[in-house]
Design brief:
Chain lengths: 141, 421
């Protein structure tokens, strides 16, 4: 399964202040660990919302709103896309990230074709169980 | 957190940490079977303690510490035993029973240890089935039950296979190391073969009702990505990663709503996963940058990339694909490669030229029961308007495939020709 790990904005990210050198180095190390474990698919940091735009839809009207946007907690400062075997694995990896100071990071599961996921649906599991029994029977006979 | 809540967490930690723990322990005790037993012992302790104490801050180090303590106890006991039985040769004592260096740095050797674990799991002394099972077990952290499910085998059968594999490795005294020099190429190709086998088992299930067993594809992809990080200078490692990423990019497009397979040209290319394509093309570029002479995985990835780059089926660069198959046929002179080449020629130069090439393959003994030969011939004959012959080929293909879904597809194609003829 894939998850998106969402890093929320704060005063610093909105002000365009980059993290301190040490944190940068630690984050680099963390990213390396993720890559070495085959977990990291993609990851990007986003520029402050002052450089962003919003488009509001209402009937046929489209209104463009310029940044910056308030409520920095609602803003996204960056994201990763991870390939993991379970949500618990994603949590375990995220716990190892070098964040601090009350930062909250959100993990969300990505929708995928149900066939392409680490978790089998109960129907598939049942079907597999049937096939397995059939094969066992064939072997035995 | 309650005890039942924490089990999935422990399982996740185990999947992350166990390959590292087993690899580190194997370096110490020089026996991968013993190392895994020790790691499993540590897991049992974790399952007892963590529900009360919570998961420790550094669970990998915690598991390692427990396993090490067990190992030291075991070696002390063995030494005691030896002192009591003086008839046992001193040589044996010195060689096998010396307490190993348990304090050697783990992190320093981590990369090499993990790589050594891959090499030992895929050692040529083992049967292919054993290599696959052991790799999933030791490097994927899969339980025997999970492996059994994936391969539609019984759990005792898989457990047996793993036990035997470990014994074979111990009996053969296979060293725990990254092979060097001339040996490296042959051993690496075994590792790549095992990973690709796992991928293919998932991608195109050879038996049973399902066309794709997705868990295996994901695990193979993960192993391929890990290997590319561990052995970044080996071009074929990136070639294999590229091949799997690009093939996996079509996963969503190659199965219809009722589980039927959809062939490449009928696929909705909008459903192709562009992230995986991008990753695949990047890996292919790395492979080609590392070596001018392309290996077989890199060539297959280059062929897959031709399809990935084409926005529509008509835009496929078939003449380039033919050239790549020429190169591949020289490297791997297998009838299957020639069959694929015939398909490409059929597209580049017309069905008559392609069919002509398949004529020579019908006498190949190794293709006699290969369903894709009549399937390809049926396809080319259809294009040539020789519909009755085409139908016979599709029917023959259907009788040869072991995959239920594929058989249905082939019979449908035969049926359609029947009604249109």
């Amino acid at each position: 399964m894939r998850v998106m790990v969402i890093v929320k904005g704060d005063k610093n990210s909105e002000a365009g202040i980059l993290p301190k050198k040490e944190l940068f180095a630690e984050m680099g190390k963390f990213n390396e660990q993720l890559a070495k474990a085959g977990v990291m698919l993609a990851g990007e940091g986003l520029q402050p919302s002052s450089k962003g735009k919003r488009v509001k839809f209402s009937g046929t009207t489209r209104t463009v709103i310029d940044g910056p946007f308030t409520e920095s907690k609602e803003l996204i400062a960056g994201f990763w896309l991870w390939q993991v075997r379970s949500m618990e694995e994603a949590v375990e990896w995220l716990k190892r990230a070098p964040f601090d100071g009350g930062t909250e990071i959100e993990i969300r599961q990505v929708f995928e074709a149900e066939d392409f996921g680490a978790e089998f649906t109960p129907e598939l599991k049942e079907q597999e169980e049937r096939i397995r029994q059939q094969i066992e029977k064939q072997k035995a006979s | 957190m309650t005890a039942t809540d924490i089990h999935p967490t422990i399982e996740a930690v185990w999947k992350i940490e166990s390959p590292k723990v087993i690899a580190g322990l194997t370096r110490m005790v020089r026996d991968v079977g013993l190392a895994e037993d020790l790691a499993q012992d540590a897991l049992v302790v974790a399952l007892e303690q963590w529900p009360n104490s919570g998961v420790p801050d550094n669970p990998g180090a915690w598991l390692m510490a427990i396993a090490k303590r067990r190992a030291i106890d075991l070696f002390r006991r063995n030494q005691l035993l030896i002192r009591k039985h003086e008839e046992v040769s001193r040589d044996l004592e010195a060689k096998q029973m010396a307490v190993p260096d348990f304090d050697a740095g783990i992190e320093d050797n981590l990369g090499d240890d993990l790589l050594s674990l891959m090499f030992i799991s895929c050692h040529p002394v083992l049967s292919t089935d054993a290599r696959v099972a052991l790799t999933l077990r030791l490097l994927g952290g899969l339980t025997t039950d999970e492996i059994a499910r994936a391969f539609l085998a019984s759990e005792p059968a898989i457990a047996q296979r793993i036990v035997r594999a470990k014994r074979t490795l111990a009996d053969a005294q296979v060293p725990f190391e990254v092979p060097r020099g001339a040996e490296l190429a042959a051993r690496l190709s075994s590792v790549l073969e095992v990973i690709y086998l796992i991928f293919n088992e998932g991608y195109s299930a050879t038996a049973g009702e399902d066309w794709i067993r997705p868990g295996l594809c994901e695990e193979a992809l993960r192993l391929g990505r890990v290997l590319a990080e561990l052995a970044p200078l080996e071009p074929e490692v990136h070639g294999l990663a590229a091949l799997m990423e690009i093939q996996a990019s079509r996963m969503k497009a190659r199965v219809g709503t009722s589980g039927e397979p959809i062939l490449l040209f009928d696929q909705d290319r909008a459903k192709w996963d562009q992230l995986l394509i991008t990753r695949g093309l990047a890996a292919l570029e790395r492979a080609e940058r590392l070596s001018v002479a392309r290996g077989s995985y890199t060539l297959q990835a280059a062929i897959a990339a031709c399809h990935a780059r084409a926005r529509t089926g008509d835009q496929t660069d078939w003449s380039r694909i033919v050239t790549l198959y020429d190169e591949l046929a020289e490297l791997v002179p297998s009838p299957v490669v020639h069959l694929n080449r015939a398909v490409a020629v059929g597209m580049a130069s017309g069905p008559a030229a392609g069919f002509e090439l398949t004529e020579r393959l019908t006498s190949e003994a190794s293709l006699r029961n290969y369903h894709l030969l009549p399937s390809v011939r049926g396809d080319l004959l259809t294009k040539l308007g020789r519909l009755a012959e085409a139908r016979a080929e599709f029917e023959r293909a259907a009788s040869l495939t072991r995959n239920t879904r594929e058989r249905e597809l082939l019979l449908t194609r035969a049926e359609r020709l029947h009604s249109s003829h």
